[in-house]
Amino acid sequence: MNPTHMKNMTRSLGFGGCTLLASATAVVFQFAAAAVPATPALRAAFADDFLVGAALNPAQIDGRNAHAGEIAARQFSTLTAENDMKWQSVHPQPGRYEFKAADAYAEFAAKHDMKLIGHNLVWHSQTPAWVFQGEDGQPATREQLLKRMRDHIQTVAGRYKGKIKGWDVVNEALADGGPGILRDSPWRRIIGDDFIDQAFRFAREADPKAELYYNDYGLENEHKRSNCVKLVRGMIERGVPIDGVGTQSHFQLNSPSLADVEKTIKDLAALGVKVMVTELDVDVLPSRGNMGNADISRREQADASLNPYAAGLPDDVQEKLARRYADLFGIYLRHRKSITRVTLWGLDDGQSWLNGFPIRGRTNHPLLIGRDLKPKPAFFAVLKLGQASRP
Ligand code: 9MR
User: Fold this and answer.
1) Catalytic site positions
2) pLDDT digits (tens, 9 = 90+) for 32-74
3) For 268-303, how does the pLDDT look when each residue is reduced to its tens digit (9 = 90+)?
4) Measuring from atom 7 of ligand 1, which residue has the nearest CA?
5) Residue in 365, 347, 294, 328 with CA at minimum distance from that of residue 79
6) Taking Cα atoms as reference points, which of 226, 237, 356 lies closest to residue 302?
7) DSSP letter string, 306-373
């Protein structure tokens, strides 16, 4: 359905003071708290396939942006804290843990019957410098860092024991290129390659029932994908407790190819672990290259020609985005026996990290819900697939 056609087929409905869209196929997109049970929602449409989720931020769950919170609870069956469970948020200083923000996600998830995903325990980014420091300006020793890692995992994973479905135990440990498999991070430099195994063992010890995941971006690239397969196969052979792999899926409109997306899912599933799409979004803005590299430290020079949709997404691009999402969810549905969860990296376009990456201050449109909190054609395209998949 093209956007113009869709606009003609839609009518405005007022719910709770908001004007919302409903398609002529009686798809009523209703966000009000007193929702009619039959109102279509992604979480119901995909209930027999996989969990569907979004990464959320504090304002969306603490009532400051109550409307967004209602949408999240209504539409999604799982949530991930976009930033508030990362090391720097929960453990900013030695011995000082801050759980107020993180706890709010656990409460929100329980209240709305949503599964909570922990993101993340060990990452090279958003980890304070003190973690890697030893005495007298020297780097920490292997023993010191392992102890810090274990204390952190025991405290954080221990706190949410019984409340969390699974943890991204290690995030983004694979290199984007170069001869080695692993990224040259302080974790690896100080502990050695076994820092990953150690983190998973500590996590199992801290919460034996939580699922434990390895999570990374760019796995659709053949080189990185085969390194990921080697890494996870090695872990399984060594008896490391790993339950699943998350392919983050920070995509563009035309890249990666659908064939590579599908191959990634197949190769990961063949390892016998659960496969998850953990951070899905589709960047619609032009780029100078380096597509598929979601390394947050990457920066590009600003240029007005690289911000063409500040006033809104034209209908033809809106349609391309809807088709891209439909193609992706078509693949996910084909592999629903292996895929246990699909999480979007944000609830709405206004929240997306892609407004600031790799160039600050742009207007991106990568998600299913617009910055006005209204569903986009891509939302309806995905919803329709989910509904059609119901037995
Ligand atoms: O979306 C997150 C953004 O708000 C933070 O500023 C950024 C900091 O590193 O992290 C973003 O989320 C990242 C996620 O934690 C790991 N994979 C890549 C995501 C996008 O950078």
Assistant:
1) 172, 279
2) 334 434 447 999 999 999 999 999 999 999 999 999 999 999 9
3) 999 999 999 999 999 999 987 655 566 666 666 667
4) 296
5) 347
6) 356
7) G-TTTT---HHHHHHHHHHHHHHHHHHHHTTTTEEEEEES-SSGGG-GGGSSSSTT-----SSB-TTS
Tokens of 205: 């010890």
Instruction: Indicate the pTM of the whole model.
Output: 0.90
Q: CA–CA distance from 3 to each of 286, 296, 366, 378 (Å)?
A: 21, 33, 16, 10
Provide CATH code, domain 32-289+317-389: 3.20.20.80
Ligand 1: residue of 296, 299, 343 to mutate (most ligand atoms within 8 A of CB) is: 296
**Cα–ligand 1 centroid distance for 82 (angstroms):** 7
16 Cβ contact list (under 8 Å, min separation 6):
31, 32, 33, 67
- Cβ–Cβ under 8 Å, residues 61 and 112: no
Atom of ligand 1 nearest to the CA of 296: 21
